[in-house]
Write a structure and sequence with these properties.
188 residues; alpha+beta; 2 domains; eight-stranded antiparallel β-sheet; 8 strands; 37% helix; 32% strand; elongated
């Protein structure tokens, strides 16, 4: 009987040790995964030259019509963005027939800096007589914001100001449908 009782005791000890080891592993791995999720996301630091497209195509699902916007001329430095601390900033004009859209894009070293800059563009548009028509999150995780601004300018009546939630600030300005098509068709 004594040997049998000791055997049970050894088995229980082994089971307890295995259970303790598994519990420690679960806590360590779970804690590591939780810390990864809680760590602040970093801004995308890829150079814009490799990311900005010279042609943007939008296909209207309802009409089947395709709109192709091509860069007119070359990219110029966006000095206002650089002055605000952007790592790089570019301005270009896209056209599809008679429709033109001014496209400004800036990359910042931090996500917060890009968001603050986009917000400052909206604030400036309002100070210049524009009206924010709408704003909304652009990513499923609640990051990024798109503001649609009525500029009050007859030639360029709408501006989309976009903080992509990954370190970029973009502005597209032109007529309503051209700006919408550019936003919907671009992949940055």
């Amino acid at each position: 009987m004594a040997a049998r009782a000791g055997g049970r005791s050894d088995t229980r000890l082994i089971v307890a040790m295995i259970a303790s080891t598994v519990l420690v592993l679960v806590v360590v791995i779970g804690g590591t995964l939780l810390l990864e999720r809680l760590r602040a996301p970093e801004a995308d630091d890829r150079n814009l030259e490799t990311r900005v497209q010279n042609t943007i195509v939008y296909s209207d699902a309802d009409s089947g019509e395709t709109f192709t916007y091509s860069l007119q001329g070359s990219w110029e430095q966006w000095t206002e963005a650089a002055d605000a601390g952007a790592a790089e900033g570019w301005v270009g004009t896209y056209a599809s027939g008679e429709d033109q859209v001014v496209y400004e894009v800036a990359r910042f070293d931090t996500i917060d800096a890009a968001g603050s800059y986009a917000q400052s563009l909206v604030t400036q548009a309002e100070a210049d007589g524009g009206t924010v028509r709408s704003s909304s999150d652009t990513n499923t995780d609640g990051t990024g914001t798109l503001w649609v601004v009525d500029t009050g300018d007859a030639d360029t009546p709408v501006s989309y100001v976009w903080d992509d939630g990954r370190g970029l600030s973009l502005t597209m300005t032109g007529d309503e449908w051209s700006v919408y098509r550019m936003y919907a068709g671009h992949d940055l």
